[in-house]
Amino acid sequence: MEPNATLTALRDFCAERLGADLADRFVRLARPGFALTEAGPGREAAGHSRFGGRAMLEPGTEWPTCDGFPLSLLAVLDTDALAPWLDGIVPAGTGLLNFFSLDSDSEHADPAAMELSITYGCLDPQLGRVIAARSAYAVEAEPPARSSVFDPVPWAAAPGFAFPDSYDPAWDGLDLGPGFDDMARAMPAMHLEGLLTEWSQRPGTLDSSEDIAFGRPQFPTGSSPMLPNHEDPNLYHHLLQLSGQDEWWIGGDGGWMHWSIPTEALRAGDFNQAIPTPDIW
């Protein structure tokens, strides 16, 4: 089912349970995204999308660093392969998005990376970068010494629509309309969840809540995107969520990694403004 038809089916599903007006306002919170799972039989890889492997950069692109220390390539998203569901969210021709982070916790990490991460703090924007590369020009880049290289895991991408996490400030702008008490207005996500029976059967569901491209971030700690200078998360768009891999985690025992970007910068294709927004416990 193509995106517009899926969105219409999702709106109809919600309207049966919430009424047409509230369903329309509720569905406006949904953003197209992709559940990322390991490609295999029956699950074709989404272009060059993958965890790990080598960065795919245009010749002459400098490898990103933090205070001179090389960041590590964690993932690549092929937006050309994902374009039909992105509905103009990403400018045409964006190509490949390379996601970098300072690896200070994996078994591959250089000891100096941990010292650097402590100096900067886990939320510092300099600890992560996103670099776009046009598909026709991108080539595998040789990683510099001291950066971590992870075994590649090609991704299949199942499209769907993602709603905000229960504690995401995106809910603050939802008008429930008349007939709802103060408790419902204080926690609209949890209240609506009780009204949306058979929610797991909704059209356009994402099959995975762990690794997600675009859509909305999920925060196991019950938090919300933590941004520099207490910026409004509603002004940002989610790019990638990594729940962790066998050989890579953030935050020691756990932690989920996210990258986000100001919505206006995303529309302009300015990925220099993308930043890491991790959820660490």
Summarize the structure.
This protein has 281 residues and is α+β, with helices and mostly antiparallel strands. It contains 7 helices and 14 strands. It has one domain (3-276): YwqG-like (Hypothetical protein YwqG fold).
Notes on the protein architecture:
This protein is α+β, with helices and mostly antiparallel strands. It has a single domain (3-276), classed as YwqG-like (Hypothetical protein YwqG fold), CATH 2.30.320.10. Helix content is 22%, strand content 23%. It is built from seven helices and 14 strands. The protein has helices at 3-18, 20-27, 79-86, 111-120, 182-186, 188-195, 263-268, and strands spanning 31-38, 50-51, 56-57, 65-66, 69-70, 72-78, 96-101, 128-133, 139-140, 153-162, 212-214, 236-242, 257-262, 275-276. The protein has a ten-stranded antiparallel beta sheet. A two-stranded antiparallel ribbon has the order 3-9. It has a two-stranded antiparallel sheet with strand order 4-5. It is globular, with a radius of gyration of 19 Å. The chain starts with a helix and ends in a 5-residue tail after the last strand. The relative contact order is 0.20. The mean pLDDT is 90.
Could you name the key traits of this structure?
281 residues; alpha+beta; Hypothetical protein YwqG fold; 10-stranded antiparallel sheet
Query: Average pLDDT across residues?
Result: 90
The structure class reads alpha+beta
Beta-strand content bin: 15-25%
CATH class bucket: Mainly Beta
Number of discrete domains: 1
Task: Describe the strand arrangement of the main beta sheet, using strand numbers.
Answer: 8-7-6-2-10-1-11-12-13-14
How helix-rich are the residues, as a percent range? 10-25%
Low-confidence runs of at least 5 consecutive residues = none
Distance between the termini: 38 Å
Helix-strand sequence:
HHEEEEEEHEHEEEHHEEEHE
